[in-house]
Specification:
Elements (H helix, E strand, L loop, with lengths): L1 E2 L1 H12 L4 E7 L17 E8 L4 H8 L9 H17 L2 E3 L9 H9 L2 E2 L5 E2 L7 E9 L2 E2 L28 E2 L2 E2 L1 H9 L4 H6 L2 H5 L10 H12 L2
Parallel strand pairs: 1-8
Antiparallel strand pairs: 2-3, 3-7, 4-7, 5-6, 9-10
Organism: Mesorhizobium vachelliae
Protein name: 4Fe-4S dicluster domain-containing protein
InterPro entries: 4Fe4S_Fe-S-bd
C-alpha cells in the first residue's frame, strides 16, 4: 500500500492543531536496516515531526497547566502525547529523539530535509536558521508518496564572521567541538545569568532566521532543562 499526498496533508493538518509541522521524510531502501513499525515489521517510510520557531509553545503551556507540578521532562512528555495520538490515528509508530536506544534522528533529519550541521551542532535551516527542532517521527510500514529531497542552502558555508563561535564567554563552541562541562558550569554559575534568562549567546548571535528566534522565556525554559534547574 502507498499513502497518497492527500494522506500526508491530513497528517500535517492534525499536527498543526498543536503548532507542530512535518519536517520532511524519506523511504528506506530494500538493502537498509530499518526500525520496527507499528506491527513490528520493518518501517518503509519515515516522516519527521518538529517545529519552526516556538509555534508549539502556547499549546504546550496550556497542556502543562493541567499536569502535576513535578512532571519530569514535560516537553518530551507533551510531544510524545501529541505525536502518539497522530500516529494512532494514521496507523504509524511514534518515536522520540530521547527514546532509548537512541535512533539516528539527526541523520534522518539531514536525509529528510537536505540540511547540514552548523558549528553549534544544530542543523542550519535555510529559512528558520537555528530556531527549529525535531520533536519526534512517525514510522510507517507502508510506502509514502513523498517529494524528492534536495540539498538545502547552507548559510554557514558563506558566513565569514562566524559570530556563533565568538559570543560565549567560556568558548563553549569551537572548531574542536562542544565543551560541555565548561558550558554547564558557566550556565549554573553566578556569571551565567544572561544565558539562563535569555538563552545561549552563541546561538542568539547567529543572524539567520532571526524572525523565528525563540522568546526569552522559551529559551530560559530550555536552559533550565539543560542546567538541571
Amino acid at each position: 500500500m502507498t499513502f497518497s499526498r492527500d494522506a500526508v496533508e491530513e497528517i500535517a493538518a492534525a499536527l498543526a492543531a498543536n503548532g507542530l509541522i512535518l519536517r520532511g521524510g524519506f523511504s528506506f531502501g530494500d538493502d537498509e536496516v530499518a526500525p520496527a513499525g507499528p506491527s513490528g515489521a520493518p518501517t518503509r517510510s519515515v516522516l519527521l515531526v518538529g517545529q519552526a520557531g516556538a509555534a508549539p509553545w502556547p499549546h504546550f503551556q496550556r497542556w502543562l497547566e493541567r499536569q502535576a507540578r513535578d512532571i519530569a521532562n514535560p516537553l518530551d512528555s507533551w510531544s510524545r502525547e501529541v505525536i502518539g495520538a497522530v500516529a494512532q490515528e494514521f496507523g504509524a509508530r511514534a518515536v522520540s529523539p530521547s527514546d532509548r536506544p537512541y535512533l539516528p534522528f539527526q541523520q534522518w533529519a539531514m536525509r529528510a530535509e537536505g540540511l547540514k550541521p552548523s558549528p553549534l551542532g544544530i542543523l542550519m535551516h535555510p529559512t528558520y536558521g537555528l530556531w527549529h527542532a525535531y520533536r519526534g517521527a512517525l514510522l510507517f510500514e507502508d510506502e509514502l508518496s513523498l517529494p524528492e529531497v534536495h540539498e538545502a542552502i547552507h548559510h554557514c558555508d558563506t558566513c565569514v564572521e562566524k559570530p556563533c563561535l565568538k559570543s560565549c564567554p567560556v568558548d563553549a563552541y569551537s572548531t574542536e567541538g562542544f565543551a560541555y562541562q565548561a558550558c554547564l558550569a558557566h550556565v549554573r554559575g553566578a556569571d551565567g545569568k544572561a544565558c539562563r534568562n535569555g538563552g545561549c549567546l552563541d546561538r542568539n548571535a547567529c543572524p539567520y532566521g532571526a524572525e523565528y528566534r525563540y522568546a526569552a522565556d522559551v529559551q530560559a525554559f530550555h536552559m533550565a532543562a539543560f542546567a538541571g534547574a
